[in-house]
Amino acid sequence: MRADSTYFRRFKQPYRNAWELCSAIGWMLCAVYFFGLFQLKIIDRNLAVIVFGLCGAMFFWRLYEGWSILVARSYLHGYGTAFMSIQTLIKKTNPDHLWLGLGFEWTPDHSQKLYDLSKYSAKHWRLNKLALWLTGRSKSVMSDDDQGLAALHGLNCGETDIYRPLKNFEGGLCIVGTTQAGKGVFLGTAIAQAIIRGDVVITIDPKGGGRMENVIRKTCAIVGRDEPLIFTTDNDPGSVRLDPLYTYGSSGEIATRIISVMPPSSDGTFRAFAWAAVDTVAQALIELNISPSVRTIETHINNGINELLGLMLDKLIENKACPEWRQKALAFIKGSKKELENVDPLKLKISWYENFLDKTHHIRPIESALKVYHHSAEHYAKITASLIPVFALLNNGDMQKIISPDRNDPKDLRPIISLPDVIEQKQVLYIALGSMQNADVATAAASMMLADLASVAGHRYKLKKGGVRICLFVDEVSNVVNAPLIEILNKGAEGGIYTTVAMQTMADLEERLGSVAAARKVIGNLNNMVALRTKDGLTRDVFTETMGKTYIKHVDTSLSTHADNYSGIPSYNAGASHKSSSKREDIIPGEYYSMLPNCQFFANVSGGKLYKLRSPILIDENDYKETASEKDSAKPAKTADEEIREALELLEQDAEEKKEQA
């Protein structure tokens, strides 16, 4: 009998009553009947043994078939919310693989089941409580109050730990899901594994605080790593100060980091002028051995280049000019005798530089500054106006103290760090930006840090500094995506950066970048995708394109009857037809992405491997034990799920109280 025959298809699809159990009961009654005949000596022993054996074999065969249907239907009730301790995750963590979660590989057979399932209502395949109890799944199924379609994770009988090689994630991982769908849960699991492996971990969380920070702190404490460095945009005494301009290879890198704060959709011409203006000031500061900072660059952009130009010329005159340089330079300045007596000292220095200093001694910082000096002041003010909101964000209140730290301030004892320090010391850095309080400031800070990291990655690749794996995690990436982040996605793997980004919808990315094409370009640079619940049409379209297609079998059955007594002789005709065809369909229909339960997702990784997975919520086993030991023994016993949920609520309350106290 063919594997795609009607019988086998009917047996493989568990969306029906287990009629085989009725047959099993019938065979059991037959066995009892013939056993009775043997006891009454109506049939002889040899016949009784043959008939009894045949009835018993048929009984067990039909019982197995019916039981398989019940078990398969029980899995369609799904799985409830799962919890897992960090200690258990440590045992699961592999140094060369990423643990994705609990689930199974999605195959065309699962797609066929899903399409067939869509033909029935939930009542058609749901089991009663007795049947669920008999199959042993009454306590682990999804509650009716939970969100999503439980059957999506039940199309496979059972689940297992799913691992993929870390090498596959050099091309980046994108996590997409709506609010409360489980992005933070999966992201927290991935971050915890990176900490356990001993990698450099840099997490950018625009919202900040909450469960993710708690997971990072707990994991570091359990595995014995240094306490994580916490960076916040408010005046938190526990925050570190991070200087994104501390290390650089050229003035252009400094300009790129500051210009990265401008929205990606801003006008290209104004961005180019703004970049040139910042680059000119940065060149001058470097030439004068003044450490560039956002604060000093803003000051000289606003006040003009004259002061820095004069200082650079003074340095050059001291080394290269002859004692009579003033008289020689004055000869080239036009004006009356009185005007020449009161000539601007800077103008005199410029005259000497342009007319007497040998061109072999001309230097680029002064050349760039002279272009600004000779430029129309009015026009220069217009082209640098686009930098006003950039510096307003970066030097906003407390932000100025932590992103442009004053190393000589005796009152501020908070440590000053840089990203190269974090990488060299293999530390864990958590950047909490508080976007709910000030979204624009959070975006500006994240943009500069991503630009700094892109520069660091470039230097590491150029100097061939390997051996250190840098895991970058960016939540709500649509708020902070910029050109440097796209460069990290394109080439970060060459500098040892493994990037994981999370967002809610493609529409958010489109709004940030200004076009659907630009948003798709970012998604195209991410080789792996995790799809949680989403209702956005554009996002679901991207999912269906990414996951691919398969052939789905469709069966059309028709019946026809015809009665005819025209000839005087009554006649009756009947016919039946059975037509099977295959059509190429989405391997996962788009509407099911909006039906995923919390913390469940589809994953397309490793160049086409497709999985259906769920991610457990991480808790600390020690906290759970402490919470459980405080329970009153006189109270009625609770189930394990109830105790874990209560422990998790207490942990969240404790985290909120600590945050309020801080």
From TrEMBL:
CDD domains xrefs: TrwB_TraG_TraD_VirD4
Membrane topology type: Multi-pass membrane protein
Assigned GO CC terms: plasma membrane
Residues covered by region (Disordered): 623-642
Domain of life assignment: Bacteria
Principal location class: membrane
Cellular compartments annotated: Cell membrane
Domain TraD/TraG TraM recognition site: 470-589
Keywords from the named record: Cell membrane, Membrane, Transmembrane, Transmembrane helix
Record-linked InterPro entries: Conjugative_coupling_TraG/TraD, P-loop_NTPase, T4SS-coupling_protein, TraG-D_C
Pfam family, one: TraG-D_C
Ranges annotated as spanning the membrane: 21-40, 46-64
PANTHER family according to UniProt: CONJUGATIVE TRANSFER: DNA TRANSPORT
Protein name, per record: TraD/TraG TraM recognition site domain-containing protein
Species per Swiss-Prot/TrEMBL record: Turicimonas muris
